[in-house]
């Protein structure tokens, strides 16, 4: 496990015993590369991640999917698959957000998920499938970090439950996509403070910070 995670306040009987990167590899999730995924904030109106010194990490939402949702099983399945894909992209984003500065942390240092919000696009006032669409997002986090609804659960049980989170799933939005989910996760405060002290609280990075990080890697 990660050094910060091993030294965290999580009691031993609730600590993960598996490497989350083994699960990522088994599920064939593309983790990208430093050059492609570590960029700068030049001209950006928002960031992808905010690190707080408390250990809370806020990930901005991302939209995806084939379009508006309605109560048809095949359509909801398409939306759930899009939500799962977005979760995978956020896990990749979080990986690079945690690792790019060389502070010693990675996804194994994530303590647990905290809260997710899914905004499901549907102008159908009778639409009732928002939670089912959002399940694709939630289940992917449980598959990687542990949870009874994840792909590694057996009879509703997993080795860990750190992927389980509080959640809202709301329909009724307009847009040319299906869902925009966001999530808050928790990391050890010591790791968050190390990141902030070394390169700041935002990801992608301020341009000058990116150059410093690149120089350090080289």
The helix/strand class is: alpha+beta
Portion of residues within helices: 25-40%
CATH class designation? Alpha Beta
Mean of all residue-level pLDDT scores: 96
Report on the biggest sheet.
6 strands, mixed
For this structure, the CATH topology is 60s Ribosomal Protein L30, Chain: A
CATH homologous superfamily, by name?
RutC-like
> Number of DSSP strands?
6
Percent of residues in β-strands: 15-25%
Name given to the CATH architecture = 2-Layer Sandwich
How many domain regions? 1
From the alpha carbons, calculate the radius of gyration and give it in angstroms.
18 Å
Number of helices: 7
- Give the overall shape: globular
Termini separation (Å)?
A: 26 Å
Strand order of the largest sheet: 4-3-5-2-1-6
Low-confidence stretches: none
- Along the chain, the helix and strand elements come as HHHEEHEHEEHEH
Helices, strands, pairings?
Blueprint: H1 3-6, H2 20-26, H3 34-37, E1 49-51, E2 56-59, H4 73-99, E3 112-121, H5 130-145, E4 166-173, E5 179-186, H6 189-199, E6 202-203, H7 207-217
Parallel strand pairs: 3-4
Antiparallel strand pairs: 1-2, 1-6, 2-5, 3-5
Tell me what the structure shows.
A hairpin with a 4-residue loop joins strand 1 and strand 2. It contains seven helices and six strands. The longest helix is centred in the middle third of the chain and has 27 residues. Helix 4 packs parallel to helix 5. A six-stranded mixed β-sheet has the order 4-3-5-2-1-6. It has 218 residues and is α+β, with helices and mostly antiparallel strands. It has a single domain, classed as RutC-like (60s Ribosomal Protein L30, Chain: A, 2-Layer Sandwich).
């Amino acid at each position: 496990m990660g050094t910060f995670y091993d030294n965290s306040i999580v009691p031993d009987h609730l600590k993960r015993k598996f490497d989350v990167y083994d699960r990522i590899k088994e599920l064939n999730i593309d983790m990208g590369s430093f050059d492609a995924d570590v960029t700068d904030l030049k001209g950006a109106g928002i960031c992808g991640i905010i690190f707080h010194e408390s250990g809370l990490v806020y990930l901005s939402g991302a939209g995806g999917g084939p379009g508006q949702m309605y109560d048809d099983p095949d359509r909801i399945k398409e939306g759930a698959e899009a939500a799962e894909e977005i979760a995978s992209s956020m896990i990749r984003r979080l990986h690079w957000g945690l690792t790019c500065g060389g502070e010693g942390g990675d996804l194994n240092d994530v303590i647990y998920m905290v809260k997710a919000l899914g905004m499901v696009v549907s102008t159908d006032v009778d639409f009732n499938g928002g939670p089912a669409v959002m399940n694709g997002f939630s289940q992917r986090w449980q598959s990687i970090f542990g949870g009874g609804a994840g792909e590694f659960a057996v009879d509703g049980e997993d080795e860990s439950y750190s992927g389980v989170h509080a959640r809202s799933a709301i329909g009724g939005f307009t847009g040319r996509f299906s869902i925009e989910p966001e999530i808050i996760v928790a990391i050890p405060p010591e790791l968050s403070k190390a990141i902030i002290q070394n390169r700041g609280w935002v990801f992608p990075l301020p341009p000058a910070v990116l150059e410093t990080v690149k120089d350090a890697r080289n």
